[in-house]
Amino acid sequence: MLLGIVGYPIKHSISPKVHETLMKAYGIEGRYLAFEVKPSDLREAIFGAKALGFTGLNVTIPYKEEVLNFVTPVGDAKFAVNTIDLRDMKGYNTDIYGVEMAFRNAKVDVRDKLALVVGAGGAGKAVAIALLKMGSKVVITNRTQIRGIETAKALREYGNCVFHPMERIKEVNADIIANATPIGMKGNPGMPISEELLREGVVVFDVVYNPVETQLLRRAMENGCKVITGLEMFIYQAKKAFEIWTGIKADVALIRRASLEALEVDQQGPAEIPRGEA
Ligand SMILES: NC(=O)c1ccc[n+]([C@@H]2O[C@H](COP(=O)([O-])OP(=O)(O)OC[C@H]3O[C@@H](n4cnc5c(N)ncnc54)[C@H](OP(=O)(O)O)[C@@H]3O)[C@@H](O)[C@H]2O)c1
Questions:
Q1: What is the per-residue pLDDT for 48?
Q2: Ramachandran angles phi, psi of 170, nearest 5°
Q3: What pLDDT digit, counting tens, does each position of 71-101 carry?
Q4: CA distance to 15, 75, 100, 163, 230, per residue, from 216 (Å)
Q5: Cys-Cys link to 123, which of 79, 172, 179, 180 (CB 3.0-4.6 A)?
Q6: Is position 239 annotated as part of the catalytic site?
């Protein structure tokens, strides 16, 4: 079976290592390869992979929305696709499932809670959709205001979703804060929001998983917040993608181990970071 991931840039992706570990564990011969695809080549890359007999592709920054031009989205993937089944050209969004599982495993009841989602790109949409579907009220903020406004408007079909300008987010008294920007990633250090928002008891989720313990999560823990790492989301989005391509429900502990190995983090993970179940 041939699988892969397309993005630009792509060299830091841990997906090849994780999916090849799963393929080996479940006796599937093949490869999962990372492809750096230039924006002008996206169509050729996707149809080329299909022509070459690839079963599926993951899609990452910056193509999660653009691939909607080439695939038929299934369900909530109509806003962003991160997994393609090339056999029938269907597009899925397993990031949404990843977010849902990350919150469920952390035993956070998000119903009727106010969630502030920072970022309105592919990850921001996945986080907002998952939280809205689980019953939260969502406030989206974004650096580029118009993108944030349009995203909040589009996601209103899922529930109570509004936009609030970044420069006034201190006015938002959120129970849950989610970072869905790349701020905090390896090579892009910093905090996506002011530390003042990290009040005791607030649940803080970071989509960034490299490093697992971001500056945001570290500060949140110091301030008495409950934290959920982006690794939890990563693990479950990978699990669902693998299931779409192979029909196999892979072992979560195995995915976690392979992810941590790929991140060159100690197998136990940072001691104070809570883990999801299983
Ligand atoms: N844990 C997981 O499984 C998982 C899954 C998917 C993605 N991710 C991570 O999520 C992050 C975002 O990915 P994406 O696919 O959503 O990317 P994207 O579609 O390119 O969106 C990026 C978002 O971040 C904002 N942003 C970028 N740089 C910023 C800055 N310096 N200051 C303020 N806002 C900034 C953008 O705002 P503008 O609209 O103003 O540009 C946009 O809202 C990446 O780090 C990715 O690795 C994690």
A1: 98
A2: -60, -20
A3: 999 999 999 999 999 999 999 999 999 999 9
A4: 24, 32, 20, 22, 12
A5: 180
A6: no
The pTM of this model reads: 0.94
> Per residue in 16-70, pLDDT tens?
999 999 999 999 999 999 999 999 999 999 999 999 999 999 999 999 999 999 9
d(CA 6, CA 108): 33
Within 6 A (CB) of ligand 1 lie: 61-62, 64, 95, 98, 119-124, 142-144, 147, 180-183, 185, 207-209, 230, 233-234, 237
3-state SS record for 127-184: HHHHHHHCCCEEEEECCCHHHHHHHHHHHHHHCCEEECCHHHHHHCCCCEEEECCCCC
Distance (Å) from CA 9 to ligand 1 centroid: 13
Q: Distances from the Cα of 100 to the Cαs of 8, 36, 195, 251, in angstroms?
A: 26, 29, 25, 18
Residue closest to 161 by CA, chosen among 100, 98, 116:
116
HSE-CB for 132 with a 13 A CA cutoff: 24
> Which atom of ligand 1 lies at the shortest distance from residue 122's CA?
16
Which atom of ligand 1 is closest in space to residue 120's alpha carbon? 43
Identify the residue whose C-alpha is closest to ligand 1 atom 29. Answer: 181
What domains sit in the chain, N to C, each tagged with a CATH number? 2-96+232-262 (3.40.50.10860), 108-229 (3.40.50.720)
Pick the residue with more confidence: 10 or 215? 215
The rounded Å distance from CA 141 to ligand 1 centre is 12
